[in-house]
Amino acid sequence: MAVLSLAASPAHAAPKYAGIVVDANTGKVLYGDDPDGLRYPASLTKMMTLYMTFEALESGRIRLDSKVPISANAAKEPPSKLGVRAGGSVTVDQAIKALVTRSANDIATALGEFVGGSESRFAQLMTNKARALGMTRTTYRNAHGLPNTAQMTTARDQARLGMALRQHFPQYYGYFSTRSFKFGKQTIGNHNRLLGSVDGVDGIKTGYIRAAGFNLVTSMQKDGRSIVGVVIGGRSGASRDAQMRKLVAEYFPKASRGGKGALIAQAPSAPVGDALAAAGRLAALDLPTSGPLPQVRYEEQQVAAAYAPSQKRSGEALKALADVAVPIPAPEYVPAEQGDAGSDEVDAVTTASTTANIPAATVSGWVIQVGVSPNQALASELLQKAQDKGGKVLRTAKPFTVAVNANGEQLYRARFGGFESQKTAVNTCNALKKQGVNCWASQQ
């Protein structure tokens, strides 16, 4: 058995770049770099959250002055957030402005619950709407864009959504050019640095999580020309913005003048019940509910095999995976790079690991296993997720990872050591289960 240890901050593959520029008058692709490669949308997700909100406004189901209640679930979302306490409320108008400026995660969740009944139900409707708009490779699992390995998209799909927002809701599209808005004593500025600095730019949205990099969808209209550009996987906010400036400068003059626009057709709306059922089927077909990073999932068959529930497995592999939830990485809350012109746009804050990983060879006795992954970094993230949820329950526990080769399948066990007896390990595991962490105790 090979034994590997990880540092407290797991290494992650650098986000892969993807970009596209589309002539919005004709639909012609003027520039493309891996436009159909799967990527994490991060807060570009909120573009669809707003699309669904605009649709509800247009149908009369809600109004701009309708009150959006803030649930405990919404209030506990990590920053960026508006910070409204559970039990409070904001108007739909305030909620829209909070999303296009601060990219508020708490308000995105609240809007999802308000429009869809629950955030999970809303995510199903978002996925169904994506299909109706022709976004064939996009799947949603939440309303804000914080990490979920099944929530994925492409640069082409995001360009299509950007054009759909402008075409389908011209009466609301102006929200995306909001430079700032006042909420209480706060004056909240827009994260989109191209607004006001590039003539003709009228929105749309920024986004960032570590696994995605720095993302941006930009709409530009001037002198009869109209384009939508998408940059995903920027190394910093400043470099992403510089790339977008370069793209619009080079390709905007090549866009056609005039025309009615490349219409983004929308499939007829189905009854809510039918839409939910269809969304569930489509989501299940397109992507697993969790898994490794996109470049790993789709480029390494052996990793995908580790998640195939129908595949016949060796006894050791089955033992390794038994009673353990398929790993979903914990959200990575990291600040933007120091000196980055867009450093205040980050959609989350830092949470450090409470305990550094230790060499597995130094651990003996009883341990708790919280997950198994075919990826070292994800196994370490499972430990972080358990620490975040477990709190003081794991205060003195020692996190470590163990690599096992089960009949040619490389797996990584995420474990905590430092337990004096079986009773202590079992009691700790039971306490973790009450916090929503699947686990089991065993001897190292």
Provide the CATH top-level class of the largest domain.
Answer: Alpha Beta
Mind describing the biggest β-sheet?
5 strands, antiparallel
Major sheet strand order: 2-1-9-8-7
CATH architectural grouping of the largest domain:
3-Layer(aba) Sandwich
Q: What is the assigned CATH homologous superfamily of the largest domain?
A: DD-peptidase/beta-lactamase superfamily
Count of distinct structural domains: 2
Order of helices and strands: EEHEHEHHHHHEEEEEHHHHHEHEEHE
Uncertain stretches of 5 or more adjacent residues: 1-12, 267-355
Outline type:
globular
What is the radius of gyration computed over CA atoms, rounded to a whole number of angstroms? 23 Å
Distance linking N and C termini? 12 Å
| DSSP summary, beta strand count | 13
Number of helical segments with 4 or more residues: 14
**Approximately what portion of the residues adopt beta-strand conformation?**
15-25%
Mean pLDDT: 77
Helix content: 25-40%
Task: Give the helix/strand class.
Answer: alpha+beta
Looking at the structure, the CATH topology of the largest domain is: Beta-lactamase
